[in-house]
Give the backbone structure.
Amino acid sequence: MDNPRVVSRQPGIPVRRVSVDSGQVETGTWPWTVPAVGQLLTDGLDLATGATVIVGPNGAGKSTVVEAIAAAWGRRMSAFRQDWLQQSVATPSTEDSALYRSLRLHMTPGGSSGGLFLRAERLHSQAGQFESRGRWPERVGGQSLLHLSHGEGFLTLLQAMTSEPGLYILDEPESALSFESCLALLQIMSDMLAAGSQILLATHSPILAALPGARILQLDAEGMAEVTFDDSELVRAWRAFLDAPGRYLRHLS
């Protein structure tokens, strides 16, 4: 998927830091009992200038954190302008926690204000909001996302947004993507970063975690900590399996 890189005219990234309003916290209750969420309360979270990639096992709080930041971002932006783009970010799912109500986003003055929150399983429901809005049809050459495969629709949507800098939050997009499509998404995200966007990505994919220049945060039972690609548990586990899958499959025989 070739896409010409666009030089950003935006003066700064959207969000520098995430902190918590302690007056909105009910300690001892979920999601504050999740170590990574509890660490948000004590330490806050600095977002990278380019991409922040969140990795970790199921239950570590990856989706809980990114969903809350997405809803807080959408709520903040909707205070300034109401359009389909921000509405698609701001609407939490009924399964999401109320964590977003306590988050405070430290913005870059004059920073870009676009963006989307995409979850692979909600792409088609979100696409229904895009189809007839503004310049959307011309962005994708008049084709309907609903007529594409899940993975094709995901990539088409993001590629169409490359020239609109903002905060793009992706929750486990690999669930809709093949190996080749994950590589295509890496190129699209690189183009988005070059155009001045900021990316927050939660993933189980070592391919997506390899996004050049990304800051990797590992969430686990201890909380969250910055790690290198090679030292992340995600990459270590995949390498160990691919080196000797028989060690993991013996119990199946």
